């Protein structure tokens, strides 16, 4: 008989309902019989022991908040009776935990594009990158004209990456914009890039090009539209040259150790931390064991689970960087007069996530158990293989853009509520529950909901690995099929 509830950790004081429970239903757990006191939706929590007012409630083996009033075994635990323990910044102590991955090397490969600098891309696209939002319209016209002329034959696609910035920004915001645009220009999923400038913007074209370093000048070209009589004619001339070069590139077998994957969740529900996130965590561990790279971000969604990540850092230096990353983001919230613990969205709460700790402990399942080998600031580019942490907010578009910008070839995006979007790299959607996978098959690339339909993790992990490697080898993700692709850059300060 298939289970109708799940106790995730032996220390937990709640179980998660795998299907809706009615008032009066019975739960047999730990030798006790618990009667459900209220109708409780699937994905939500039922208390399996009495707790006093102020007492912590445990899930995943950790506190997810405290009871706002005295509660009885069988009560439905939700945002109306559970309150976060989070407040301000904290001091942390490094208590390293070493847990070697017991995963063998498989010598797997995928078909990618080897670039001149030795980097590898999983797409071969022609991109237009505006230095300032003023030229977005020109970029779009150029894309349409090149698509019409070429029908994209010989390349995977042609895109312009619109944004609103590049001028009227100050200090950190301005530098963040420049760094993300630099990272896009240098991304190996682009076979060729036209940098499109207005000319008078704060993001001055020559200074921006200097940020690219020793780039391939045959594949990255600059057009300053104020300096030419006909920007369409000049732009098309450059694009035809770039297209001619990129269209000759071919896929070749490369080791899976070259693959870099971003880890993200959005529209989470009560199943996220028990199906899709653990599945992605298994993949992340497998990839790291093969010599590859995974990146976890969404710093606010680490609050409440941050010590797990801190203690997996391979050095005290990385631990200190992680502490700074977490406390800096808390200070960002507090500096705007916002509470640290106010993160779960209405959709999260409806899906069974009641506090930020509840969300964070499920969110961090995506990075498995690998040690943390690198910590990056927003806009930084990857330097270390293995599991990395990246500073970025929880916002789906901003965080996914940040993952792609640091060098990830694709993003694995788990979701319980569903979302169609994609960033400038393939953005695979992994459903946490079978209902979403069935209803939104045009959005979902893989269903981890099979885990609550009787499939085992041992069965599903190889299938998921095959699916990710297929997408890396050219199979389009659903966001690519739908042509849902965009970028979003983090903004903190004033606009002039």
From TrEMBL:
Keywords: Hydrolase, Lyase. SMART domains: SAF. One of its GO terms (biological process) is D-galacturonate catabolic process. Signal peptide: none annotated. GO terms for molecular function: hydrolase activity; lyase activity. The keyword Hydrolase applies. InterPro entries: GD_AH_C, GD_AH_second, SAF, SAF_UxaA/GarD, UxaA_altronate/galactarate_dh. Residues 12-83 form the SAF domain. Belongs to the UxaA family. This is Altronate hydrolase.
């Amino acid at each position: 008989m298939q289970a109708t509830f799940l106790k995730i950790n032996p220390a937990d004081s709640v179980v998660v309902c795998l299907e809706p429970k009615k008032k009066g239903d019975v739960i047999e757990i730990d030798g006790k019989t618990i009667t459900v006191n209220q109708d409780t939706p699937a994905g939500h929590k039922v208390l399996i022991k009495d707790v006093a007012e102020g007492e912590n409630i445990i899930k995943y083996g950790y506190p997810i908040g405290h009871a706002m009033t005295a509660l009885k075994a069988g009560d439905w635990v939700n945002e109306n009776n559970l309150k976060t323990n989070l407040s301000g910044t904290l001091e942390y102590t490094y208590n390293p935990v070493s847990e070697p991955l017991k995963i063998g090397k498989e010598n797997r490969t995928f078909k990618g594009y080897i670039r001149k600098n030795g980097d590898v891309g999983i797409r071969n696209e022609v991109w237009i990158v505006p230095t300032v939002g003023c030229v977005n319209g020109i970029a779009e016209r150029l894309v349409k004209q090149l698509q019409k002329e070429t029908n994209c034959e010989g390349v995977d696609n042609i895109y312009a990456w619109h944004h609103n910035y590049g001028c009227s920004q100050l200090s950190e915001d301005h530098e963040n914009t420049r760094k993300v645009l630099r990272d896009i220009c240098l991304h190996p999923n682009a076979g060729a890039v036209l940098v499109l400038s207005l000319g008078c913007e704060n993001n001055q074209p020559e200074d921006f090009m200097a940020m690219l370093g020793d780039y391939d000048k045959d594949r990255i070209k600059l057009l300053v539209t104020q300096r030419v009589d006909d920007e369409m004619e000049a732009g098309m001339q450059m694009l035809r040259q770039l297209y001619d070069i990129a269209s000759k590139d071919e896929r070749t077998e490369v080791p899976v150790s070259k693959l870099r994957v971003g880890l993200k969740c959005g529209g989470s529900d009560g199943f996220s931390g028990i199906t899709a996130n653990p599945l992605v965590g298994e993949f992340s561990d497998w990839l790291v064991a093969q010599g590859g790279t995974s990146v976890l971000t969404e710093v606010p969604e680490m609050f409440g689970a941050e010590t797990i990540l801190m203690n997996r850092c391979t050095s005290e230096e990385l631990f200190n960087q992680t502490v700074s990353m977490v406390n800096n983001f808390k200070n960002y919230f507090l500096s705007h007069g916002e509470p640290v613990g106010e993160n779960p969205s209405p959709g999260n709460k409806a899906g069974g996530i009641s506090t930020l700790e509840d969300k964070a402990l499920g969110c961090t399942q995506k990075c498995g158990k690998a040690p943390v080998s690198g910590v990056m600031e927003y806009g930084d580019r990857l330097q270390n293989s293995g599991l990395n942490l990246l500073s970025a907010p929880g916002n789906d578009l901003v965080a996914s853009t940040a993952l792609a910008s640091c060098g990830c070839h694709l993003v694995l995006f788990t979701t319980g509520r569903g979302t169609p979007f994609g960033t400038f790299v393939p953005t695979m959607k992994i459903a946490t529950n079978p209902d979403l996978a069935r209803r939104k098959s045009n959005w979902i690339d893989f269903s981890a909901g099979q885990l609550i339909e009787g499939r085992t993790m041992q069965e599903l992990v190889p299938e998921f690995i095959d699916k990710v490697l297929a997408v890396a080898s050219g199979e389009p993700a659903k966001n690519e099929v739908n042509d849902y692709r965009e970028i979003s850059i983090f903004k903190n300060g004033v606009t002039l």
